[in-house]
Amino acid sequence: MEVLRKYGVQKTIYFPLIETGGEDYTVAAVHVAGDSQRSFDGAAFNNSTNAFAHVANGIYSLVLTVAEHQAEITVITVIDQTPAKVWQDQTIIIQTYGNPAASFAFDLDTATVVASSVTGNVGGNVVGNVFGDVQGDVLGNLIGTIGGLVAAALADFFDTNSGTNYAAAVAGSVVKEIADNAATGPAAGAIAGAVWDEARVGHVAGGSFGEGVASVQGNITGNLLGTIGGLVAAALADFFDTNSGTNYGASVAGSVVQEIADNAATDPTVGVIADAVWDEPRAGHVAGGSFGEGVASVTGNVLGNVVGSVGSIAAAGIAAASYTAGALAAIGDAVLDEVYEGAETLRQYLRLTRSALAGLLSRAGNILRFRDLADSKDRIVETTNVDEERVIVVTDVTP
């Protein structure tokens, strides 16, 4: 017989013993040393920690310790060691669950799967809410919301629509907002005005323009026909000549105004601004309610749609209420439909196990029939030989 038990938890197993040379259960079995032995994962057999005991009606019990449940598969043999054997040999195979070292790592006793973070790639769809850090790539679709922002709005939020052509970005996207609201450079008139309105104090370094004009504090309304510090009047006129008022593009070549216009720093392009925004270190941009705070924990690629909310995962992880009924059902179905052995799934294995352990049993000659829960079909049909050995086993694992 085969049973499923939780890894590392003491449990009592129950099993029948059949009289030697017959087919009835025996109530006369008495345990002596060596009658019950166990092997862990194919290792050598040793005596079990406890002795088995008769419960009633030929059913016996054996208490298996925590250590005897710390293996993928524990095989128990119950063999009469006395010369005149009272019962036929019995074998119990125990498979464990609920631990990475068990046959099944998934804990069947746990109703809620708790995930504190996603650190690898998600290759499928995430249905529900994501509360915490996504540190790897999301290769499928996120169906839910991120911080209350629906997927369509999030797509527009980051969409540039045309690569690095930010002028054509989707209206309302962060790139479009940067392009629309980026400060423009000051006009040439504002630059010139700031130069001439600058206080002279402090601008007196040797050889600077400030030093050169520091002593001219009044108006020169006539012509300078000589030289100023070796500079002839004609050259001085060109030096300051704008030629057309505030139209600095038409100022005289070589004038200070033309030099200012020619050498003024050009405004950065929208592409340069956007690159600077995305290349800015996250540290320091964590003010409550800011974009920096909102995207600080997204360190990987979000390649699909995000529909739902991404908040913070608390120490206790994602609660059961965070999953939809459909998500929980999908998780359960995925576990139960996992191939267990050969082409047989865990769901099919449990149907067979339930029938073998608790289903109605009938016998006609050497044919044993184990029924399903509804008593609507033969779940297992066994044919035995004269030695009570199984020679043919036919199973029906359909619902």
Folded structure, characterized:
This protein has 399 residues and is of the alpha+beta class. The chain has 4 domains: 2-97, Sandwich (Immunoglobulin-like), CATH 2.60.40; 126-182 and 279-312, no CATH class; 188-263, no CATH class; 344-395, no CATH class. It has 10 helices and 18 strands. Strands 1-8-7-3-4 form a 5-stranded mixed β-sheet, with no helix packed on it. Strands 15-16-17-18 form a 4-stranded antiparallel β-sheet, with helices on one face. The longest helix has 13 residues, at 346-358.
- Number of helical elements: 10
Q: Considering DSSP H and I runs of 4 or more, what fraction of the residues is helical? A: 10-25%
Can you tell me the CATH topology of the largest domain?
Immunoglobulin-like
Shape: rod-shaped
SSE run: EEEEEEEEEEHHHHEEHHHHHEEHEEEE
User: Ranges with pLDDT <50 over ≥5 residues?
Assistant: none
| Structural class by secondary-structure content | alpha+beta
How big is the Rg?
Answer: 43 Å
Q: Would you report the number of β strands?
A: 18
Could you give a short account of the major beta sheet?
A: 5 strands, mixed
